[in-house]
Design a protein that fits this description.
Tyrosyl-Transfer RNA Synthetase; 54% helix; 7% strand; mainly alpha; binds tryptophanyl-5'AMP; three-stranded parallel β-sheet; 5 strands; 334 residues
Length: 334
């Protein structure tokens, strides 16, 4: 892995079902960028416990997400794939970065405000500090690029701010990363039940999202029920958020542009279109689901991938952490 290529880091939380929003906004690009960069991908279990998790489910979801990464096309021979809690440097760097972060910066984060409202009975320090842990994830690996959906943009801005702040205070230490956010509406896939809301795995209404493991009948049913707009024309437009969202999803799984989709469904109604979207999504997910199921039967292989990933991640992270400890003045012996 010691090449001249720039480094790329991203992660996904194992906090339940992964949606096609996660796939379109992030995971698809994890796959697409692996030739160009030295890629490091993590299962962000430390982040997941900022909201209540059932321990057995968290353990299961961690393994499932690892299998899903590989089934989607992330090559463990080319990339570092690991579990965040296996590398203690993430927590260690978080402590140091906490000392240059102000509470006001964290309390005004949109995601913190949203999650605090949603989990009012569990507004814990971890939830507030979540972005600093994310900053540590990225800076530990000196990542130049971070593929994410639009909802994580604010956390990337904090990452850049803290990298610059640390570098100014202690001397050049961290690479200042750039976000890689899909162009257009793929950066923010919306709920099928309410196209003014982001598609989210934590939505109480399961008709709002399609998961990566939904079967064909479920996917087709959810697409048929998707909220569309007035009129009957399949056309992308600001006043047609429901149809535009479905066109984004259709395009992500078929490679078709908005124009091609408009042409394909000219003169046809929403019904035909929604059915085509459901079938396209289900057909694209079927081989991923089959491969994931196959991988989950080979736990020794998945454990091996994680172990090798952990070793590589620890090696890269240790280098950065040791530099940081030196810069801040921790005595390391003569
Ligand atoms: P998470 O697990 O919530 O989501 C994983 C990725 O999916 C993107 N995403 C979406 N993209 C488009 N449309 C949507 N509806 C949609 N919903 C989610 C997210 O933007 C994200 O890229 N904090 C991160 C995990 C993380 C991380 C990191 C990411 C931890 N450390 C370091 C990058 C770098 C998160 O909660 O992702």
């Amino acid at each position: 892995m010691e090449t001249e290529k720039k480094k790329l880091f991203s992660a996904v939380q194992p906090s339940g079902a992964v949606t096609i929003g996660n796939y379109i906004g992030a995971i698809r690009n994890f796959v697409g960028l692996q030739g160009e960069y030295d890629c490091i991908y993590a299962v962000a279990d430390l982040h997941a416990i900022t909201v209540k998790q059932e321990p057995a489910a968290l353990r299961r979801n961690t393994l499932e997400l690892m299998a899903l990464f590989i089934a989607c096309g992330i090559d463990p021979e080319k990339c570092v794939l690991f579990v965040q809690s296996h590398v203690p440097a993430h927590c260690e760097l978080t402590w140091v970065l906490n000392t240059i972060t102000y509470p006001g910066e964290l309390s005004r984060m949109t995601q913190f405000k949203d999650k605090s409202a949603k989990h009012a009975d569990n507004v814990n320090m971890g939830l507030m500090d979540y972005p600093v842990l994310m900053v540590s994830d990225i800076l530990l690996y000196q990542a130049a690029l971070v593929p994410i959906g639009a909802d994580q943009k604010q956390h990337l801005e904090l990452t850049r701010d803290l990298a610059v702040r640390f570098n100014n205070r202690y001397g050049q230490t961290f690479t200042v990363p750039e976000p890689f956010i899909p162009a257009g509406s793929g950066a923010r896939v919306m709920s099928l039940a309410d196209p003014s809301k982001k598609m989210s795995k934590s939505d109480e209404n399961p008709n709002g999202f399609i998961t990566m493991s939904d079967d064909k009948d479920t996917i087709v049913r959810k697409c048929k029920r998707a909220v569309t707009d007035s009129g009957s024309e399949v056309r992308a437009a600001a006043d047609k958020p429901g149809v535009t969202n479905l066109m984004t999803i259709y395009g992500a799984f078929t490679g078709k542009s908005f124009e091609e989709t408009e042409r394909e469904f000219a003169g046809k109604g929403y019904g035909d279109f929604k059915l085509a979207v459901g079938e396209a999504v289900a057909d694209a997910l079927a081989p991923i689901q089959a491969e994931k199921a196959r991988l989950l039967k080979d736990k020794a292989y998945l454990d091996g991938v994680m172990k090798r990933g952990e070793e590589s991640a620890r090696r890269i992270a240790a280098r950065t952490l040791s530099k940081v400890y030196r810069k801040v003045g921790f005595y390391r012996g003569e």
